[in-house]
Amino acid sequence: MRVILIGNFAYVIVFSVGAAVTLFLTPKIAKSMRDRGIVGVDVHKRDKPEIPEMCGISIIAGLTISVLIASIFSSFMNEFFSFLTVTLFAGLIGYLDDKGRLGPRVKPLLTALAGLPILILGTYDPYPVLPIIGRTRLTIIYPLLVPVAIAVTSNAVNMMDPLNGIMTGSGSIVTLTLLVSSCLLGRGDATFLCVGLLGCLLAFYYYNRYPSRVFSGNIGSLAVGAAIGAIVVIGRLEAIGVIALIPHIMNAFYGLASVGHFFERKEIASRPIKILKDGRLAASTGLDAPITLTRTILVDGPKREKDVVNIFFLLTSFSSLLALITTLIMVM
User: Structural domain boundaries of the chain?
Assistant: First the structure.
């Protein structure tokens, strides 16, 4: 009983530290970014307000400190170090991308390289457990899939940031799902990492929700996506993670399939959605506009931005429910 209480107390501390640091730093970083002129235009508002960019630095800071605190309560040193290295590397890639120094084809390659610390430190299991099938043996192909997994999750989460609060809100839902799954499956390393990430995401969501007062920037979204991917690999939650991330993967697939290659938003002349005079969002009718999940949601008619965001959350909640059902199947 005493061990359980100490474990629960540790989780509360890790969650609270991550949330507190992010909550404290976000407005300060936002002010600094605005003072430096590092702002992004909220293109889905009629008055086009300028919002401080690159504020996702606070998520990275909060997550780093929370994981360091978690290391005091556990012995998962290699797992925590590889996780932080992956997340910080992805954050650096996001920083360079925010500064306009990376191209659409370079970013996926670099985010794949961000997965190397997991391979170098050996914090993965080449015998993933799949629902119904059971334990598999992928000793040769699994190491090759690890960089791909980090590239896919980081870029899919990065692309799932079209409207206010979607990235942090849906990321929180996915992380909560992974947290519950790791608890049920007894994956202590993943549980600590999920608790820290969840605290940071919820704190940042407070400022990033509709109407956004801050934008995470690529530095934030790539780091969050890489962190989720690292948790999935390190915590041996592969099948669960894929199912929970179905909306993110679908959104990325739609965009890439419709354009035909990796692209940046600024390269696309016709945007997938447009703003009506009453402020509602509508699907673009342009033939050259990329197909995205947002555009698909708006096919049946215009909607308010907040309503579209809620639909995103419902889709992520549904896929997360399927992921939890998968977890129960694996437990049984």
Answer: 2-242
